[in-house]
Amino acid sequence: MSSGGVGHGDLTGKGRTGNVPRQLRAHPLPKHDYRCTQDDRQPPPIPHSRVPPDRTQRLWYTFLVSLIEAIPNISEGKRTGVIEAFTVAVCSPADVELLNQSSDAAHNRTVFTLVGTPAGLTNALVALYDVALRNIDLKTHRGEHPRIGAVDVVPLVPLAPRDMPLCVTTATALAETIASQFDVPVYLYADAATRQNRHRLEQIRSGEFEGLSSKMSQPAWRPDFGPTSPHPSAGASVIGARRPLVAFNVNLETGDLNIAKRIARTVRESSGGLPAVKAIGIRTRDPSVVQISINLVDYRRTPLHVVFDAVRDEASRLGTNVRSSELIGLAPAEALHAAATHRLHLEGVTTDQVLEYRLRHCPDPKRPQPNEKNET
């Protein structure tokens, strides 16, 4: 295993660049002890340019560089000090912004939503792996959410459809870097998958950390990068590129886990349920509440309100009710707009009637639009 020193040398590992594109090679990170200080925000160099230190000027810089999203899922949701160290690590590069953080003690899992340049995200994620490998031991890890790694899964998501190839290239380069620098086996998934049986995350994660050694002994489950056996404490990692999804949980007014599992089986696509829906039934910290944890892989095929109604109706049929629901991380506005339109029975409403949308797309906010009406 690597000593884990982040930020001193070529992050593609051992001074080797291999087939990593020049524009995606990672660059040195500032040396720090992962305490929250302003010094941690000093910008590292990036290819052919330096991010302007002023935040307003950085907005102009983003017009020149494609930005993508990264959503690392970490197998730690209880220890606040460790979670804070993760946060400082991902915030280190100046060309990365932390948009959201969600931690769940019952899942023992933290999800970050980051946006930045490919090089900046590579720096941030390598720093994140460094902290995770020094603080997480899956041999003693307990949580409700399935996992095979300390850094369990890292999807890269394009903010524009044309940038999916960029996400695939960045994910592949990142996977090679992580395997080389930290001696962690890495699988590529979703649009970055190299084999048919690795498109779906749940197929790779089947058996979890406890069954990983046996699984990796099979030729079909040799990793794309890194050693052919799990890291002793960090397991393996899954890195890929995918379209935006909605992570959505529904909590039930019952402590019966079997009910949650039955509902999850009914609504998920793999069991003959709703298309583009993944779902599992799990416990929560409240013994009187169980949860259906849902991923809407394509919210256009199955909108948010459709899967919620299906869960609610099945819960009623099984003698219980929905207590609440929760959004994990960020969701596309289109998904929430569709749900609101359905619930309020709005007719003919488009996103142009949402104030923030209109302001964003209006060339001159001071100039009235032709169809504006006076307030009555």
Features:
single chain, 376 residues, alpha+beta, Formiminotransferase-cyclodeaminase, Chain B, domain 1, Alpha-Beta Plaits, 2 domains, seven-stranded mixed sheet, 10 helices, 18% strand, globular
Indicate the radius of gyration in whole angstroms: 22 Å
Number of helices, where a helix is a run of at least 4 consecutive DSSP H or I residues? 10
Unreliable segments of 5+ consecutive residues:
1-52, 370-376
Order of helices and strands: HEEHEEHEHEHHEEHEEHEHH
CATH architecture of the largest domain: 2-Layer Sandwich
By oligomeric state, this entry counts as single chain
**Largest sheet, described in full?**
7 strands, mixed
Instruction: Determine the mean pLDDT.
Output: 82
Q: Kindly report how far apart the N and C termini lie.
A: 69 Å
Domain module tally: 2
Fraction of residues in helix: 25-40%
CATH topology of the largest domain: Formiminotransferase-cyclodeaminase, Chain B, domain 1
Q: Pairing-aware structural class of the strands and helices?
A: alpha+beta
Binned strand content: 15-25%
What global shape is seen? Answer: globular
Question: In CATH, what is the homologous superfamily of the largest domain?
Answer: Formiminotransferase, N-terminal subdomain
> What's the level 1 CATH class of the largest domain?
Alpha Beta
Number of strands: 11
